[in-house]
Structures are given as C-alpha cells and as structure tokens.
Amino acid sequence: MSVVRTGTMRLPAADPPAASPLPLLRGTRARRGVVGADEEMTAQIAYGQPYSLLPYTAQDGYSRTRTERDLPVVVLENEVLTATFLPAYGGRLWSLVHRPSGRELLHRNPILQPANLALRDAWLAGGVEWNVGATGHWPLTCSPLHAVRLTRADGTPMLRMYEFERMRRLVVRIDAWLPAESPVMFVEVTLHNLAAEPVPAYWWSNIAVPEAAGVRVLAPATRAYHYDYTAVLRPEDFPMRDGRDRSYTDTATKAADYFFEIPAGERRWIAAVDSSGSGLVQVSTDRLRGRKLFHWGTGSGGRRWQEWLSGPSSRYLEIQAGLARTQLEHVPIPGGATWSWVEAYGLLEVDPAAAHGPWDKAVRAATAAVDRLIPREALLPSGPSHAPEVLSRGSGWGALEVADALPELDFGEIGDEQRPWRELLETGRLPECDPPAAPVTDGPWRDLLERHPADWHARYHLGLVRYADGDREGAERAWRESLERRRTPWALRCLAESARLAGSGSGADLLVEAHALAPAVVALTVETLRALLADGRAAEALALIDRLRPDDRALGLIQMIEAEAALAAGDLDRAGALIEQGITVHNLREGEGSLDELWFRYQELRHPDTDPDQVRREHPLPATYDFRMR
C-alpha cells in the first residue's frame, strides 16, 4: 500500500506572512574573509554572495496572534511511514511518523509561528525545510510551491513540488515517494540552471529533531568545523573537546554549528538517536556532500528562542545536509546544467550500547545499520512518471519567465503580480502602478526597461534591475530620474537605502519625505526611525512616533525603537514605562542584541554612579528579553 492524498492539519497558527512593498537591496549577512577556512572553503565563501536579495521584498507582515486553523497538507503513506507536507510553506515536510511504533521522527512543531530568521524575514521551526538560493533560510520558505501528484513507472504514487527561485533564477523540483512497505521515504531534488552562464548554487536540507537528555548526533566523521557566528571557522577533532562529548547537545550551554568533515568514499549520512539507539537518519547520494549539527544550547537565550519558535517544552536540534561543506559557501552550477541527488529518511535502529559507546564504535555500528536500512544501490532517481494531477499552486513567475523552457512542469497561469510585466512583453510599455509592480531582475528585463520611455515607474524599476546587477551608480541615476517625474516614497526609500548600504549616510532626510508620502507602510516607518536615531535625531524620532496611528505605535518593534529614542533623548521615564511593562518584538532578528542592550543601557542610566558590572548583577536581564546567541 502506498498513497498520496490531500487533507488538512489543524493547529494554532498565525496568519500567513504578507510581503512588504519595499525591495530588499541588502545582500546576505554571510561573512567574507572567514578565518580558519581551508583553500577550497575560502574560495567558495568568497564566491556567489549576492549583492542584493532582489527581486524579493521583505516578508514581514505577520504577528504572534494565533488561532486554530486548518492548513492544507499533502500526505504520503505506506505500511511503515506517514509523511505530511505543507506545500503552502515552501513544501516543508512537517511530520514523519513511524507507524508501527507511532513515533514522530521529526520535531513536529505544535504551533505555526513565523519569526525573523529567513532571508526575507518570515521562517518556521520544525520538520524538514528545503533551502535553495543563498546562505540563509531560502526566500520561499513561507511561500507556496506548485504541487502535483504523479505515478511512477512502477505504479508508486509520487508528490512533486516545484517553483522558479527568482534570485538565482533556478528551477527547483522536489520529488517525494514511499514505495509499498519501504522503511524510508525517498526525496529527489533537482536544480535546473536555464541560463547560459554558471550560477552560484546553494542547498541545505534542514532537519529538526527532538532534543532531550541522551540524544546523540552521529555522522561518519572525526573532524568538524565549529562556527562561532562571527568570522571564525575552527577545525577541531569531534566529538571530544575539553572533556565534553559534543555529540550530546543537552549539556552545551551555547548555540553552535558543527560542519562535519566526512572523508571521501564514506556514505553521506547523519542521524540523531535517543537513549535506546533509535531515531531519524538522513542519507543521500554523494552530490549532497556536507553534514551539519546545529543546537541552540541550554543557556537562557537558547531556551528563550526555542520557546519563541515552538512554544514551551518543545526543544529541538537540527541535523542538516548540503551541497558544500559549510553553509557559508556557494558552488557553481554550469550554464544549462541540471543537478540532482536522492535523499532517504527513516527510523535508524542501533544497538544502544554501541550507539552510546566510544565514537568510533558508535559510527561503525550506525554505518552498518544505515547499510541495512537503505543500501547504497537503493538510492535511485525517481524515474519516469506520468499523469500529473494538480494539488496546489505556487506563484505565476514560472509561467511568466520559464514555462517554455521546461514544458514538463505545469506552472499554471500568471497572476496579478506578473500581469504588468506580461503587458510590457506584449506592448513594450510597463503600466504605472502605485504601489509599484513587484520587482524583476535579469538582463532581458533590463534591456526592455533601458529602452522604455522615461516615466517614474519604469525608471524606478530600471534602478532596481541595475542595482541587482551591482550597478549602484546607474541605479541611483534611474531613481533620481524617477523622482524628477514624480516624487514617490519608493524611489526616495531606494536612494536612502542605497546610501546606507554604501556607508555614505543614513538617508534620514530622504526617508522622512518618503514616510510622509506613505505613512501607513510600517516597514518604511521603522527604517525612517532607525535612520533618525543613526543621525542623532532622537527628538525627531519621538515626534514622528507621536504622530503614528495607534495600531502602529502599539507594535513591539516601534515600542523598542521608541524606548531607544527616549533613552537617547534623556527621557528615562518614557523609556522606562515601555521597558518595564514588557516589549514583545514579533520579528526580532535572529542574533540581534537590541533587547538586552536596551535593558542594560536603561539600567545603567538609572544608576549612573554604580559600576556597570554591578548594575548587571543587581538587575539581570529578564528571561523574556534574553535572545542572546553567544
């Protein structure tokens, strides 16, 4: 018995995150010139870091208000496993249940709560997340994919999910199937580079599993690179350091990344087993080279993050698999090339004495168990399939841009976002829209916009495509030409953001004008306030906050900035009223230290005659403000 069916899953969930109208001019936050990397890593870390995240805009429109919701799912099931996918959230594998034992093999999040950990902001914890594009959680992690049901040549039903990833302009396809009585689920990932030139490729399968006392992470390696979240990759023996076995994460106080150095010729696998020696294993063909362990640590910041993402008593760690050895790297996929690999997921069972014995014995026993569960020769491609049945729809960008190149993938019809660009293709004119049409990038669009009669909307978009190509000066000229034809908040904001990213000023005056033209765009309010603070204009920032709509002023992010501005202006009472009552910032960025810095700065100003270290001891950071990663 093997089935693919649709259904719903009910759980407390926030509204789906909405996209901002503000394009993402910044690139990734990955470090360059990382210390400790070998020659290959150094080259691949320097290669492919995107200049910007265009054509995407931020996906920051969500809250921490959750209600019971029915979410559409696709379920794969056989006699051994039940796999539940969320096609509306990047195709995430939400749950994998071992049916004979009733055991959930993944961290199945009891809530669906976006948080600010992805390239575009919104991200979810739990399950298996597929990541393509650039260092970080991919742009479509909270966006829908196309999903169809197929039948393989051997009669096995299969789920296929796919989408056009617009930053790298790669088509990603994820095929998942469960043969009858198979103890593992197979996933084949395919990346199509339709361009004539090489494209930087990035992929990581991020697998969240429950964390508890006695859980051990195993991989066939005795060395790992430890990343400290700054600029140091430290090659170390694994798992022992300073008398502690780091393959057990429940005793680690700090968050950490460990990228395993798996020797050539060894099978590519990683597993997390409990005290009984059993747990989830992921194994793949050799193209998926890297393996990683991530844990939050047992410190107060790590505990707070896990509660923030999954609610109370929902500890998890991640075991991951990627194209490169670390997540700071990109590898070139040649022009016109198609890359694919096969992964398998299932319940690994190892003799507990061996699984929790010396590292070399544990790895040998786990490797033998992997070979029994899924022999190397069983990791075969999905093969021919037929009779696609549409289960859900992704975006219309593939229909607009690449459908002719891949006729075997049904990208459906274009939608409202793509319609202005279809008109440009058909008529040579881009209709004026306010707010502007969704951004595009790439040479053919630039050519059309370079030839377009000058109006504010076409020049605005010309600036964006030039900026995406790394032509900052050309982009700024286009935005100034746009403003000559019409003063819009969109071109003003882009000029300000370009200046900030180039280190040539905060752009505060431009943003103040932009905000006056679009006061209801919260993201623009936030950028304006931060620019005013960067310019030392705290009083102006407070005056702007006083003019905001009550709903905007009540947002936690605005309240945090208000408290910062009040401290900068010397108004301790105003700052204290906010800080003491509690500020909840719904989209606090991972690794951001704003809340703890705000708390301690406030306490130090309240006690100016006391040593700062003593102030910190006497006024410790509240747990609700502790998101410290280090």
TrEMBL record:
Lineage, highest ranks first: Bacteria, Bacillati, Actinomycetota, Actinomycetes, Streptosporangiales
Xref: Gene3D superfamilies: 2.70.98.10, Tetratricopeptide repeat domain
Domain of life the protein comes from: Bacteria
Protein name: DUF5107 domain-containing protein
Residue span, DUF5107 domain: 52-328
Species of origin: Nonomuraea terrae
Pfam families registered for this protein in UniProt: DUF5107
Residue ranges of the region described as Disordered: 1-25, 609-630
Biased composition (Basic and acidic residues): 609-620
Annotated GO MF terms: carbohydrate binding
